[in-house]
Amino acid sequence: MTRINCFIPAGGQGVWDHTLDEFKSGGLVNRVFIMGPETPAKLAPGVTFLKTSARQSTEAIRMIADRSADADFTMIVTGEAPVSFGMLALERFIQVAVDMDAALVYSDHFDLLEGKLSPHPLIDYQAGSLRDDFEFGPVLLFKSQELIAAAGELKDDLQFAALYQLRLKLSLLS
Predict the structure, then answer these.
(1) Which phi and psi angles does 125 have, rounded to 5°?
(2) Which residues pair with 117 in a beta bridge?
(3) Dihedral of the alpha carbons of 49, 84, 108, 81, in degrees to the nearest 10
(4) DSSP string of 112-161?
(5) For each of the chain's 174 residues, which pLDDT tens digit applies?
(6) How many CB atoms lie within 10 A of CB 122?
(7) Which of 3, 109, 125, 141 could form a disulfide linkage to 105, CB 3.0–4.6 angstroms apart?
(8) What is the pTM of this model?
(9) Residue 162: in which H helix or E strand, if any?
């Protein structure tokens, strides 16, 4: 069975409680980690806290890679808003990653603005389409072994751009 390890920012318990419920409902999630600068007062059963001062730092990416080997895929939630998945969305992420042999999958999504869902399309990845402000959206799915290999190639200690650097390393390895 395909398994996913998930990494969620500690943006306040109300934010990630909903996201945790989403992950638990599908049966694909192996482990869930909450990442942030301070240990939350309360953690849901089975959730592990990882202390990091900057979630998109090289240190944080290495922490994620170190905890990804026991799952086929690694999901990183980049935003601090609750995440809701449509029916079979996690399965679809995995299917696309496998069918396209993609190291990284991201998706168009909807924003909840003033109680209404608003489409938020993203740019399709293609050679030359990446730039330093490229938006991948709030959820990224990586093949764990490729994430681990790319994280091993990170040499600079960056505070805020390591996730982008990871993507560049992935493109060189695949």
Answers:
(1) -75, 135
(2) 112
(3) -50
(4) EETTEEEEE--PPP-TT---TT----SEEEEEHHHHHHHHHT--S--SS-
(5) 679 999 988 876 566 777 777 777 778 899 999 999 988 888 888 899 999 988 789 999 999 999 999 999 999 988 777 777 778 888 998 999 999 999 988 776 567 778 887 766 666 665 655 555 556 667 899 999 999 999 999 988 888 888 888 988 988 887
(6) 13
(7) 141
(8) 0.85
(9) helix 162-173
Query: What are the tokens at 47?
Result: 């959730």
**Token code pair at residue 131:** 């730039």
Give the chain's length. 174
| 63: CB partners within 8 A, 6+ apart | 35, 50, 52
Residue 98's identity, in one-letter code, is V
Task: Please state, in angstroms and rounded to a whole number, the distance separating the CA atoms of residues 173 and 153.
Answer: 10
Determine if residue 115 is left, alpha or beta; phi over 0 gives left, psi from -120 to 50 gives alpha, anything else beta: left
